[in-house]
Amino acid sequence: MTDDATDDAPRHQEEQKAFAEEADSLLAITIAPLIWCAHFLVCYCGVAIYCAKWQQAFSLGVLRAGLIGATVLALAGIALIGWFAFRRWDVRTSGDWVHERGISEDRHRFLGHAAFLLALISFIAVCYVTLPLIFIGSCA
Amino acid sequence: MARLTALLLPLLLLLAGCSGRQSALGPGGADAQVLAVLFFVMLGGAVVLWLFMNGLFYWATRRSPSAHSEKGSFLLIVIGGILFPTVVLAALLSYGLAILPDQRAPGDGLTVAVRGEQWWWRVEYWPEGAEAPIRTANEIRLPVGARTEFRLDSHRVIHSFWVPALGGKMDMFPGRETRMSLEPVRPGLYRGQCAEFCGESHAWMAFEVEAMEPAAFDAWLAHEASDARPPEGAEAQRGAALFAAQGCGACHAVRGTEAVGQVGPDLTHVGSRHSLGAGRLGMAQEDLMRWIRDPAAFKPGAEMPAYDHLSEAQLSDLATYLRGLQ
Ligand SMILES: [Cu+2]
């Protein structure tokens, strides 16, 4: 009885350590959606404030160019995160889509998988948010 | 055959509802034409997709109900579930966004300011360079082939300005101006309607829009700017006297007379309008009499008192006077 407990202890600790590392990547999977969120707010608030206050100060073209620049940055950031996540998921070598075992390796892959899909949807969302900037050239 | 007719008849009735002077699908304006095309593109796309999806269901459940390969299913999800909707939605979004700026395009000179009231429309025409507006109410006339700009706001609650046969709709807010523009391409009589619930008589808050050839429009506008013509004939003169004696002028303006009230619609040329009470009644003698006797009977909550103490003859005199205000 006591033997079992001491036997198990090191493995248990190891799992806990691995799990603590994963807590970081749990945060990491939110980064792509956060970039989308930030980009959306910058675009929306930027144009709203410009149209209400800054129309005399500079032309809308300047703002649009700046925001489209922000889009390029956001897309690059999301693509980078997506690439890291894809590697962590590692589906090409493991062929594992389901991650059904409750071990740290599966958790690791699962988080990579989830982060990759979130990056993909964030990428599409940022593109959609940018479309009005391209088509609508005035405050009216 | 009877079954077919039973099926087709409602469909035909439905289609018949698509034409008409308050229909976005019977466009009389440049913007409405663009929107009607947009509608049919969307409809066509929806029909194609519906047929395709149901075809797939049919195929997968009836024709070939065996398991699919993992690779095939994966491709189906990636292409059919991600790639295809992303591209189609992006295309539709771009199409819609590309249309949007035209609906707000600047006008060719004439500006019409419309304010939503409880439950009628205060209208001001500002021809290019005008210092003072030409005031009227409850009806809008527009020149065909020119883009007229609208400045919209509201007195107390949110209304929405919509002439479906001419273009898109725009909300009207108290204390905040919104803009839109319309360009009629076909002369004719259209109907507008308040499209934002605004109280008891919201559904009765409509208006007539007449799109006219430019020359006729200019002549009409010049006439609209003139003062009211004096009453002709004994009945109309009695009516004018009643109008003054009953205090109608506290709320209504009849330019060129003592009546300068601003609470209710301007009546200077009320007799020339196509409808009475913002689209509620016609402009016949009987309509005017019934309206003055009890406005709230036609528009619940109407902010004009009932004059049911007046005799039939007095109401008739008033109606004759008002109808003469051409
Ligand atoms: Cu209304």
TrEMBL record, chain A:
Keywords: Membrane, Transmembrane, Transmembrane helix. It comes from the Bacteria. The chain crosses the membrane at residues 26-50, 62-86, 114-136. This is Transmembrane protein.
UniProtKB/TrEMBL annotation, chain B:
Residues 234-326 form the Cytochrome c domain. Residues 1-24 form the signal peptide. GO terms for molecular function: copper ion binding; cytochrome-c oxidase activity; heme binding. It is found in: Membrane. Residues 107-223 form the Cytochrome oxidase subunit II copper A binding domain. SUPFAM superfamilies: Cupredoxins, Cytochrome c. GO terms for cellular component: membrane. GO terms for biological process: ATP synthesis coupled electron transport. This is Cytochrome c oxidase subunit 2. It comes from Pseudoroseicyclus aestuarii. The lineage of its organism: Bacteria, Pseudomonadati, Pseudomonadota, Alphaproteobacteria, Rhodobacterales.
